[in-house]
Design brief:
The chain is α/β, with parallel strands linked by helices and about 450 residues long. The chain has 2 domains: about 25-85 and about 255-455, Aminopeptidase; about 95-250, Glucose Oxidase, domain 1. It has helices at about 1-40, 40-50, 60-75, 135-150, 165-185, 225-240, 290-310, 330-345, 370-375, 380, 420, 435-455, and strands spanning about 80-90, 100, 110, 115, 125-135, 150-155, 190-195, 220-225, 245, 250-265, 270-280, 315-325, 345-350, 360-365, 390, 410-415. The chain has an 8-stranded mixed β-sheet, with helices on both faces. An 8-stranded mixed β-sheet has the order 3-2-9-5-6-7-8-4. Helix 1 (about 1-40) crosses helix 7 and helix 1 packs antiparallel against helix 12 (about 435-455). It starts with a helix and ends with a helix. The structure holds zinc ion. Zinc ion binds next to helix 7.
């Protein structure tokens, strides 16, 4: 009898698990079918890119994007949508940059450059100096003041091509963009040029944030397209005393006020448990910010629409946060983290989509072992939608600080091969985003939230 009871219990347990899996699989299918059939992510991305355009913090487009996405999420049926204000940097590029290198025959070979975000300008006359090319900070240090003083330093540092995930190449080289100018100025450089942080060889200079170390003089900093970076290097091989000229008129204005746009679906059973998903609403000024990060914004907003449409009532509170100023100072992330600390709720998961609207492959996570195991146990449900990895790795820049509150944090990992071809450059535009790839990202974000909401973490 006892054996019979035990067997019945096991059978019932297995039956329940199988039933739950079937129900989850059906829910995934409904979410996916609706997004692939009726999704608004692609149309909303068109509005962000084509009707609004570049959305750098402090710009009028940033304000328009806040208003527009506020309206979108209200219309999608969020329980509440609100703004969180914060001071954001206000840097403006000024006139289109010019640059050339003097050829040995006296000609001026034009080069495609752009100022780095937060850089000071050269003044209207520009600067002209001999160039010293280096491939690492070690080379810079070895040259010292004797080799650098009075010159423009060219940091010609490529992505390591052997990294299959291109993000790794980016992480290794961003230090030259952020800190190269001050490191070179320490030895008396008058300006710096970096090879664009891109895995492609093309004509687009890629901008991005830089900062100054107050201990050293400030010098103008620009990026050169990878193709022109190679030309510059070739020219320097021929004539290492060739002079480079560049002119930038960028300037930094007093801080402006920006806003995170936050939408909530209130939890019906555990309203004090919070799941945050989002992207960042700001973008660099050269681009429409389609992949970086209009895609992440429209993908995560889509969750509100699809949950409402399908009548999925979350048990836990789900927040979609469109962060302001990810690109420059991270002030939107700081603002949300401070808010999260103060509200004293239990943040269980925070996931960002900020690696492009490409075909999703998995999720990169900062998670405890037991939570990672739980997420991985759900993997079979995700595989039909192209996600096959829950890996320990990085989290999105906007959500990683929620780890300190105990949340599992992470980001959607799309295919990375083309992301840095577009990142922070003029070719990060709507036409470069594939509708279905974008929607698959939205589906996987929604499905992950569905599971964590239903079962906790
Ligand atoms: Zn981004």
């Amino acid at each position: 009898m006892r054996k019979f009871l035990l067997l019945s219990c096991i059978c019932f347990g297995l039956y329940t698990v199988a039933n739950a899996q079937e129900a989850d699989s059906l829910a995934f299918r409904r979410i996916a079918d609706d997004i692939l059939t009726n999704g608004q992510a692609y149309g909303n991305l068109r509005i962000l890119c084509k009707q609004i355009g570049p959305r750098l913090s402090g710009s009028p487009q940033m304000v328009r994007a806040e208003k527009e996405t506020f309206r979108m999420m209200k219309e999608m049926g969020a329980d509440t949508v609100y703004l969180q204000d914060t001071k954001v940097p206000h840097w403006v590029r000024g006139e289109k940059e010019t640059a050339w290198i003097a050829g040995s025959n006296g000609s001026k070979m034009p080069l495609r450059i752009c100022a780095l975000g937060n850089s000071m300008g050269t003044g209207t006359k520009g600067i002209k100096a001999k160039v010293v090319e280096v491939h690492s900070f070690d080379e810079l240090d070895a040259l010292g003041e004797k080799g650098i003083k009075g010159r423009i330093v060219y940091f010609n540092v490529r992505f390591n091509p052997t990294h299959v995930v291109t993000t790794q190449g980016y992480f290794e080289t961003t230090q030259y963009r952020w800190t190269g100018a001050s490191k070179a100025a320490r030895y008396g450089a008058v300006g710096t040029v970096i090879r664009s942080l891109s895995s492609s060889i093309d004509d687009y200079p890629h901008t991005g944030g830089m900062g100054y170390n107050d201990s050293f003089p400030k010098v103008p900093a620009v990026a050169i397209s990878t193709r022109d970076g190679d030309l510059l290097s070739d020219e320097l091989q021929r004539n290492n005393s060739a002079e480079l000229y560049f002119r930038t008129t960028c300037t930094t204005l007093p801080d402006a006020i920006g806003h995170n746009v936050v939408a909530e679906l209130r939890g019906s059973e555990f309203p004090n448990e919070v799941i945050t998903i989002g992207g960042h609403l700001d973008s660099w000024d050269l681009a429409e910010g389609a992949h970086d990060d209009g895609a992440g914004c429209v993908q995560t907003m889509e969750l509100i629409r699809v949950f409402r449409k399908l009548g999925i009532r979350p048990k836990r509170t789900i927040r979609v946060v469109l962060f302001t100023d990810e690109e420059n100072r991270g002030s939107g992330s700081n603002r949300y983290t401070a808010f999260a600390k103060a509200e004293n709720k239990h943040h269980i998961l925070a996931i960002e989509s900020d690696a492009g609207g490409f075909t999703p492959r998995g999720f990169s996570l900062v998670a405890d072992a037991d939570k990672l195991a739980r997420l991985r146990s759900w993997m079979p449900l995700f595989i039909p939608y192209g996600v096959y990895a829950f890996e320990i790795g990085s989290a999105g820049a906007d959500v990683e600080s929620l780890r300190a509150l105990g949340a599992t944090v992470g980001e959607l990992m799309p295919d990375s091969q083309r992301y840095f071809d577009h990142h922070h450059a003029a070719n990060d535009k709507f036409e470069e985003v594939n509708k279905r790839e974008l929607e698959l990202g939205a589906i996987n974000m929604a499905n992950l939230v569905y599971m964590v909401d239903k079962y906790g973490l």
